[in-house]
Amino acid sequence: MTANPSHRIILWPTRVELSARAGTSLRDLLFEQGVEFPCGGQGRCRGCRIRVLKGHAEVNRAQQERLSPGEIAEGWRLACQCAVEGDLEIELRQWDAAILVDDTPFAFEPRPGLGVAVDLGTTTLVAQLLDLESGRVLAVSTALNAQARYGADVMSRLHFAVLEGGQRQLENLIRRQIGALVEQLLFSAGRLASEIVDVVVVGNTVMHHFFCGIAAEPLAHYPFEPADGGLKRFHSSELGWKLAGDPEVRFLPSLGGFVGSDVLAGILAAKLLEHEELVGLVDLGTNGEIVIGNKEGLLCASAAAGPAFEGAKISMGMRASTGAISQVTLSPPLDPLLREEGSTTDSRSARDGSSQLRCRVIGDGTPRGLCGSGLVDAVAAGLELGVIGASGRFANGETSWMLAEPVALTQNDIRELQLAKAAIAAGIKLLMQRRGAKQLSRLYLAGAFGNYIDRASARRVGLIDFPPERVEAAGNTALLGAKLALFSRDSEGGSYDGLRRRIEHVELNADPCFQDVFVDELAFPPGSPEAAEAGRQAPA
Ligand code: FES
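Above: inputs. Below: predicted complex with FE2/S2 (inorganic) cluster.
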């Protein structure tokens, strides 16, 4: 008889079956399945909620503080606080989310060999193997950043690195993971490691420091300046990668404390320094990055938007994955022809009875939560209907608004969106003011969220106040820029010193006007006269 037998763990709705020994932490077990631990498993955020359908999972003190007695009775637990005690069946709140890759055609100078471009994101990793002669993408691999078990955002990871002495661990994890992705690319394309001649990695400044082994401590406090944000070159063997030929690996340079080489790559991809007219690039995330300018020079800044766009801190927030409401639209009164698979129509009509909500759910089926694009849409719809006033308060004085059972928008969710959108809108406004610009000829939205957000809703809530026809989803510009860098081994060897001299990093917090502009931007634009009238009835 085995002293510590394996137990069977079944995950719903994916029906994945795992086996684990008693005492195995659910955090380690579920992380491998793509479950995220937003606060790094410290039992603070509730983001790792699971529901025990069969079996037993102990409730500790952290769970008693974070879960209501009703939730505990229904089987809800915080996965990061539980361990395997016996056979278990659990329902996950999070499922696989699509990771944005890039297949944009681009011009290039052919060179012999294979190259690898890597977009090292805080949440996700994307790597592509390219034939540098033909420019063809031979293979793509994606993964969740393995560091995510130590926190979903850069601040929690910095906390782990600096205060818990975990930087070396994060460095080893990410180097190993990217090395494995490169091997996976070669395997999928049936090519040899000796054919790789160049690897380019881009990412934010914190990822740069973790990957390159540079002390990240200065990034954890004011003035958040990188210790060394420059171009870093390695032989792949120095990173522990076993690639015949030992190709060079370059991590491209950052532009500032929270503006990394992913933004530099975005500037290359969107050709911002080639435009005559003023253009912009915005990457909407926990740290929103903003670039404004033209061929005469660029201004860049980062704005701390908080995690609302990623569904965190939202009462029923979740990533853009199965079960998330990703789109909320208004439609005329119920019409059976308007019902589509994957759409749920709320049966309650708007205050004037002429409009109703339609919610699109990722993967079809029952709604489970609200992701960033759904949140922006829901608030835009609420403003249009007059359910939400310009101050952000519900007009009827209630504390929540049901979108589609059981997913509701709460007063606090609206506040979180206001904070996030005000940070970005204030950043854009200040950079435009500095540049003396009233309008942009084009605004590129980079990254996954920018790809899915509805431009009209973004304007309605005051996040991106530009005519929708001037706003363009630019896809994964970081990955495209990394690919371009594989072909442009210029005289600066990839340091992009000349280009970086044309980009000025602006410290928004140091701008004396920032706070005032930010506060102004907290309110929502008034919108249509009917909505404004309805909103005026909302308590301030
Ligand atoms: S409560 Fe935050 S990860 Fe578990």
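The radius of gyration is 24 Å.
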